Amino acid sequence: MTSAEAYAARHDAVEAQRIRLYGSQRQEDPWGGEAAAVFRFDPRRELDANLEIIASYVEPGDVFVDVGGGAGRVSLPMSLRCREVVCVDSSPGMGLEFDTLASGAGLTNARRIQSDWLEAPDVRGDRTFTADVTYFVRNIEAFINKLQASARRRVMITVWSEPPPNRSARIFRLVYGEEQAILPGHRQLLPVLWDMGLLPDVRVLPGPPWWETVVPLTREEAVEQASAGRWLKPEDKDEGRRVIERHFDELFSHGSAGFSPKWRPEMRELLITWETRQGREGQEG
Description:
Layout: H1 3-22, H2 34-37, H3 49-55, E1 63-67, H4 75-79, E2 84-89, H5 92-104, E3 110-114, E4 125-131, H6 140-150, E5 151-160, H7 169-176, H8 186-195, E6 201-204, H9 219-226, H10 237-246, H11 248-251, E7 252-255, E8 258-261, E9 269-275, H12 277-284
Parallel strand pairs: 1-2, 1-4, 2-3, 4-5
Antiparallel strand pairs: 5-9, 6-9, 7-8
């Protein structure tokens, strides 16, 4: 089995488990509504440490293509630092947030294409970038090839050291009595890149997950945090909370700052990046 086949096999296992436990029905726009609102950020905000490093690769004359860029958490701040940003994302709900934020911030060099990346029309930029998307891509080689073909200078991919959908695996096992099927992360992505003849730089970024900055102050808040997310079926919420209550001391440690989750290990964001051939030839010229 090749690394790309192993990557796809993880997706197949996740999908098979999802259908068996949750059924085959899918939301029309799973990243819309409340999910999209989570990704609303002021485009003119001060950048966190990780985004500062990403921005350091961007030059004023660049066209920055953000694949699966959602509401513009990354691309809209980059629009203040380059010639144009293009956000390619299939979610109408995310697109609405992107348009609202760009308009509200007075950004005239930010546009979006509502499409899946592999089905998107020809898009070209100096940098193609994607954050937290590769976990969900089954046909990873085709995805990477299009990132590479679309970038005049550099491809940039960020992933977390543990894919966010895998964060609840320990509680999943307690509630459902089986191991959660795990989406692929950097350990599976890098061998695919190597097999494709790519030797990227891998940089561990300094900042913590931007969505895990709040430590629950009460036991009730801790239980609510642990039972949140898409991994738990709505009809299983009550039972999930009961299971978390029974195993509370295994799942949380209590300190002066609040209840820290022991069920999710520390994670860091990784920047995986390489120059394209066009970029290297431009430097040599």
